[in-house]
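User: Run a structure prediction on this.
Assistant: Running it now.
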Amino acid sequence: MSTKLLDIKDIGHYWDYLGEAAQALREGELVAFPTETVYGLGANAQSKEAVARLYEIKQRPQEKELARLISDIEELGPLLEGLPVAARILMREFWPGPLTIVIRDPDGRDVGIRLPGHKVARDLIRMAGVPILATSANLSGRPPAIDAQGVMESFRGKVKIILDAGPSSLKVPSTVVKVTHEACPSVAPKELWRACHILRLGAIPKERIFDCLKKEEIGVVQ
């Protein structure tokens, strides 16, 4: 397979290149794209073959789940029902942005979700029109790529398209927080932080996470 490197900074071709990458995702191809943290590798969640290939080329252990990327919170659909208060607060405070939130889905499985702060990533997800599973663009155990050339060095001939938007601004992965508390509007605000566990420190310091949850005012989060 030949890998196409598309310069998404070329405004005249922005939507054409996004459309090409979105079509590739729908067809079960792998696409690399920028986020504000590091570059990501994405696959159509509805294609078992694409997801399996993503695990294979990254050399990622099967027990490590992939995160779902969304372009708008409404894409969570049924997951919005019964969403823990702590998760709602974190989404309101840090999304779009470098925070991955792990919650329990209706089937009792843990799922990681992120609404990235990078316009290219959100536009790509929206245009693809299929659920996207993603992970950082690196071989497991190695530093993630922070630019398109880094992706090319590791995955030339293994992904269909790389969208080049220049270096990532933050250059560190997202912070990952698992929210374990069930939805309960009566929970005291000062206790919400106990529902959260930091699984990976990244762009957002843990102090900001916990300070956000310890705020007295949560009336706007329903």
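The chain has one domain: 4-213.
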